[in-house]
């Protein structure tokens, strides 16, 4: 067990997430998600988890493990076109992960997701959380619009655009 990580997670609470993402920032992120979803068939979600529960810490869960878990919990796999994309931030670690449904991931590829995550983490390192998430959503939207354009008549919005604070 990494003692520094344990302490960081014990002292990063729900209020830390609320300070990093006040109501105005959540509205801006929700707006960016809605704006991007009009350009492609994908369904975008953003979730921030302040810190890991003690049981997850003890089993050395990674941000990636939790992102995969929340991808399922938020039902991103359950879209009509299998087009869900989750951007997950583990605030205590300042670690961001992007999990995409199989079809999207196969076309876009791991390298593109890692590049977007790295750009977002640079913003997070400067405590520019809203800017990092909005820029990430725009970058993801551009990729999805190139590979999976919306087409005429648009598409239904299957999942909420509102960010989730876990």
| Large-scale geometry | globular
End-to-end Cα distance, whole Å, is 23 Å
Total DSSP helices: 8
The chain-level structural class is alpha/beta
Overall structural domain count: 1
How much β-strand is present in the residues?
Answer: 5-15%
Could you estimate the helical fraction of the residues in percent? Answer: 40-55%
Across the major sheet, the strand order is 3-2-1-4
CATH topology name: Diaminopimelate Epimerase, Chain A, domain 1
Radius of gyration: 15 Å
Instruction: State mean pLDDT (0 to 100 scale).
Output: 92
SSE order:
HHHEHHEEHHHE
How would a crystallographer describe the biggest sheet?
A: 4 strands, mixed
Summarize this, please?
The chain has 166 residues and is an alpha/beta fold.
Helix/strand layout:
Blueprint lengths: L2 H9 L2 H7 L2 H15 L5 E7 L4 H5 L4 H11 L10 E7 L4 E6 L1 H7 L1 H16 L3 H19 L16 E2 L1
Parallel strand pairs: 1-2, 1-4
Antiparallel strand pairs: 2-3
Helix pairs in contact: 3-8, 7-8
Description:
With 166 residues, the chain is α/β, with parallel strands linked by helices. It has a single domain, classed as Diaminopimelate Epimerase, Chain A, domain 1 (Roll). It is built from eight helices and four strands; from the N terminus they run H-H-H-E-H-H-E-E-H-H-H-E. It has helices at residues 3-11, 14-20, 23-37, 54-58, 63-73, 102-108, 110-125, 129-147; strands at 43-49, 84-90, 95-100, 164-165. Strands 3-2-1-4 form a four-stranded mixed beta sheet, sandwiched between helices. Strand 2 and strand 3 form a beta hairpin. Helix 7 (110-125) runs antiparallel to helix 8 (129-147). The model has no long low-confidence stretch (mean pLDDT 92).
């Amino acid at each position: 067990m990494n003692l520094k990580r344990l302490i960081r997670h014990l002292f990063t609470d729900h209020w830390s997430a609320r300070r990093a993402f006040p109501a105005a920032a959540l509205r801006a992120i929700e707006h960016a998600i809605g704006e991007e979803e009009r350009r492609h068939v994908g369904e975008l979600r953003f979730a921030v988890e302040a810190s890991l529960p003690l049981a997850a810490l003890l089993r050395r869960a990674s941000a990636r493990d939790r992102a995969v878990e929340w991808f399922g919990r938020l039902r991103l796999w359950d879209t009509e076109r299998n087009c869900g994309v989750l951007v997950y931030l583990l605030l205590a670690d300042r670690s961001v992960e992007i999990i995409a449904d199989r079809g999207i991931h196969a076309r876009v590829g791991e390298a593109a997701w890692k590049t977007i995550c790295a750009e977002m983490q640079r913003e997070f390192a400067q405590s520019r959380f809203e800017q990092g998430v909005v820029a990430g959503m725009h970058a993801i939207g551009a990729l999805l619009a190139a590979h999976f354009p919306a087409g005429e008549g648009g598409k239904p919005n299957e999942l909420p655009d509102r960010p989730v604070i876990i």
